[in-house]
Amino acid sequence: MPKIEMSSGDLRVDRRLAFAEGLWAGGDAVVAADLMAETMPEAPHWAVGWLRFGEMAEAAGRIGQAIEAYQRASALDPGDRLGAALRRDLLRKTPVIERLSSGFVEGLFDDYAHRFDQSLVGKLGYRGPEILAAALPERLGRVLDLGCGTGLMGVAIRERASLLEGWDISAAMLRQAKAKKAYDSLSKQDLNSLQIGGQQWDTILAADVLIYIGALERLVGWVAGSLAPGGVFAFTVEEHMGEGFVLGEARRYAHSEAYLRELLAQAGFANVALTRETLRTDRGQPVWALVASASVLVTKPGRAGEETEFA
Asked: Which of 57, 148, 192, 245 has CA atoms 20 to 30 A from the CA of 211?
């Protein structure tokens, strides 16, 4: 994938962007957006410039202009590593993006990894691993931690697992997890492109990672096909009080209880338990989460060739 160029390659254009950013920072987003509107035709293939133009236009209240600029940035950055398509979608009356792009999430957490624990736990009081661990049985068997991040979940359940694997899209986060020495193995994986294989686990966990995926059908189907008979799937999501799921201004998805229950039932899960907990704080306010656990149905031959399902 081509490198994202932070410079336009034209010193004059770069200087005008810097001047526009100064105007924006000083509270004059309208003039900043006007300057970028004059400047960007000189650098039509510069994704970063279009993104910054979109941000200034959005701050100036020029939504149509912002959407157009974000669209140009997105077209120049097909993997959406800059998050331009996401920002464009947030300006629509009804967002249509069903998951954050893998490139955007990877870049976000590669940059965030070195301060993740301090920021999330130390400043925001993050409790995801703690509340998810409390929802699990005492013996977890072979465990897969999806989106393991810096390894906080692994540390919380290490003694209860006979085998513990961690997957994450960010190499920098995986390095932090490796330093905690809680996992038997760690692997760089994209949750948006998992394929069911021969390996199975007794427990699959996803602590505060499904907030980056809106439509969960594909992932839940993969989990159902990757759990051993009677295996447990447990996860947290931010709570949405409406229907389905919604993309918030903070660029995270929230999911409703009804959506989760229907999805898990359709995927063949039973014994679904959902509780409401405070996940962390945001600007001093509690962020409410749904903590879910469910077991996949076991199928055994019954009499006269019938099949019997039980949890």
From this structure: 57
- The residue ranges of every structural domain in the chain are 11-97, 112-310
CB 107 within 8 A of CB 81: yes
Q: Return the CATH fold of 112-310.
A: Rossmann fold (3.40.50)
**H or E stretch covering 310:** strand 307-310
pLDDT in tens, 115-160: 888 888 888 888 889 999 999 999 999 999 999 999 999 999 999 9
130-168: b (≥16 Cβ within 10 Å) or e: ebbbebbeeebbbbbbbbbbbbbbbbbbbebbeebbbbb
How far is residue 27 CA from its own chain's centroid?
A: 32
Q: What is the pLDDT of residues 210-246, one digit of tens each?
A: 998 988 999 999 999 999 999 999 999 999 999 899 8
The CATH class that applies to domain 11-97 reads: mainly alpha
User: Could you tell me the pTM of the whole model?
Assistant: 0.72
